[in-house]
């Protein structure tokens, strides 16, 4: 194992970066690593600096003097770094660079209209992945079919179809949750309004209309009746509040 590979292996074991591991698969990166092997002093310094920094961070985190909040923030930072690292490796390197290289080779190393289809499908893949990672997974909603092991041709737009399924599932899930919230939060209020206001108002209107056989007069009479009923309810609520206040003061 070369000095560069040894350094990368040690750093990756500590950092656990899938992006760094993936980058080593590219020939251009391998050439840079081969050139760097001719500077062992520089490689040794980089390795020493990285190990020193990691050891310092570990000593700080293991110290009893370190506030718990700082340890929590560091753990959250590592979690966020790993998520961003995984997304970058998947979206930019695997689904971006690797996919376009494969499509380029499949088209005899020639540019063409297939680039347009690749762009559309790639953007659909990006949006679909972000929806799954930041909408579906955090709220434990519907499951998305995110494949990370197979690179397909972009001409059939598989990611556009998958994005359509994902967005449709999210829409159905949101509608279901909205109906649940409606049943809990709003339906009791609407039922109360319907039972105490709308139904009595319609009954009063029909009674007045049957008596007078005159729509304007029935509307006018109904308005007066509703106003009187509203005043009665307001006075009743006011009397109840005054009674409760008086009882509290006596106690």
From TrEMBL:
Annotated gene: KAFR0A03300
GO biological process assignments: aerobic respiration; lipid droplet organization
Superkingdom assignment: Eukaryota
Protein's name according to its UniProt entry: Uncharacterized protein
One GO cellular component, as annotated: lipid droplet
Higher taxonomy: Eukaryota, Fungi, Dikarya, Ascomycota, Saccharomycotina
GO molecular function: protein-containing complex binding
């Amino acid at each position: 194992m070369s000095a560069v590979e040894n350094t990368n292996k040690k750093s990756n074991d500590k950092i656990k970066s899938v992006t760094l591991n993936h980058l080593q698969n590219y020939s251009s990166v391998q050439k840079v690593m081969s050139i760097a092997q001719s500077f062992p002093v520089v490689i040794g310094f980089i390795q020493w600096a990285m190990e020193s920094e990691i050891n310092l961070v570990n000593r700080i985190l293991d110290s009893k003097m370190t506030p718990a909040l700082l340890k929590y923030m560091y753990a959250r930072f590592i979690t966020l770094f790993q998520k961003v690292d995984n997304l970058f490796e998947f979206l930019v390197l695997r689904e971006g660079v690797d996919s376009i290289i494969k499509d380029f080779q499949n088209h005899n190393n020639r540019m063409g209209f297939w680039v347009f289809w690749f762009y559309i499908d790639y953007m659909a893949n990006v949006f679909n992945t972000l929806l799954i990672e930041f909408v579906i997974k955090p709220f434990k909603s519907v499951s998305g079919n995110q494949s990370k092991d197979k690179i397909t041709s972009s001409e059939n737009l598989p990611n556009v179809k998958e994005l359509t399924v994902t967005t449709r599932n999210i829409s159905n899930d949101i509608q279901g949750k909205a109906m649940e919230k409606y049943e809990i939060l709003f339906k009791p209020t609407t039922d109360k309004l319907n039972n105490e206001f709308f139904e009595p108002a319609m009954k009063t209107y029909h009674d007045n209309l049957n008596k007078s056989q005159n729509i304007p007069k029935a509307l006018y009479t109904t308005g007066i009746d509703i106003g009187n009923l509203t005043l009665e309810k307001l006075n009743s609520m006011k009397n109840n509040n005054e009674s409760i206040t008086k009882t509290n003061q006596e106690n």
